[in-house]
Amino acid sequence: MEVGDEGRGAPADVGGAGRLAERGREASGSSLDVDAGLFAPEGAWHAVEETFLGLVRPPLVVRARDAGWMPDAPGAYCARCAGGVGSFEADAPGCPRCAGGGAGGGVAWARAVRLGEYEGLLREMIHDVKFAAWRVLGEELGALLGSAVCDAAERMGVERARLMIVPVPTTLWRRLSRGVDHTRAIARGVGRVCGAPVVPAIGRWRRPPQVGVPASRREANVRGSMWARRVDLRGMTVVLVDDVRTTGATLREACRALETLPPERRPAAVWVATLAVVTDGLVTRGPRGRGVRGVAVGGGGLEGRAEGGG
Fold first, then answer.
1. What residues pair up with 226 in beta bridges, in sequence order?
2. Which of 84, 133, 136, 303 could hold 180 in an S-S bridge, CB 3.0 to 4.6 Å?
3. Chunked in runs of 10, what are the mean pLDDT values of the chain (310 residues)?
4. What does the radius of gyration of the chain's CA atoms come to, in whole angstroms?
5. What is the pTM of this model?
């Protein structure tokens, strides 16, 4: 079983992001420098990115400062579906969009964490990671996402030792064509800040990319495309990590794959952590299915649009 390393990378200290930055420094012993835009990556890929991509794109901390961008506060979105909410619109079961199905909710996971909506600078940076193979940026964004995951774990009383970070898999063909496993890069950043292992617990068969499939057909396109590897997740809170959530079909398929594990090896709960969520026209209606230890799997979709999102 492949497990990711820990202890490197940190979230950006931008404006009022003191708490996020402090958590990243505690986990990694390093930080981004706002004035110099410094990040201390290692390895040949990082050197290439610094030499070539750095010539045309400033680092995360500088871009965030210049754009006035900050990750969303937990109260800005529903803790179940990660859709945007107003004051007092969401409670433990979820918001009006996702809680219509009762206590289990209409989504396929127990908790959701995000950095923001899929727009503006965040959308631009996700494209840089995904289509320009900028791994360092992916790990930096992952570190910010990891800080949000750690905050959620504290609020829920989940020990960090019980967290397991699982990237939503991409196919070998997609990794080779893009030159990067972007979800793995993001997951590494999450794992380092949380001090949690990164485990590729799910495999994936090649299917047509979701970006070319209408929202109404994405569920069918991805169904049956993933399988759980021979891993033991008992007692763990699995955090599924992806870049963008559009309809939620890809994440629901990942949840379904985990459900195929023998009962004694299934996780205690499944969370999802995505850099961005498409919220325009968000819909969460659909049938509810059996869950992973009480987590509803096979819930309704989140309708929307995003390049390559699921």
1. 204
2. 133
3. 38 40 41 37 57 67 92 89 72 67 61 95 94 89 96 95 95 76 95 96 76 63 82 96 90 93 96 90 35 33 42
4. 18
5. 0.73
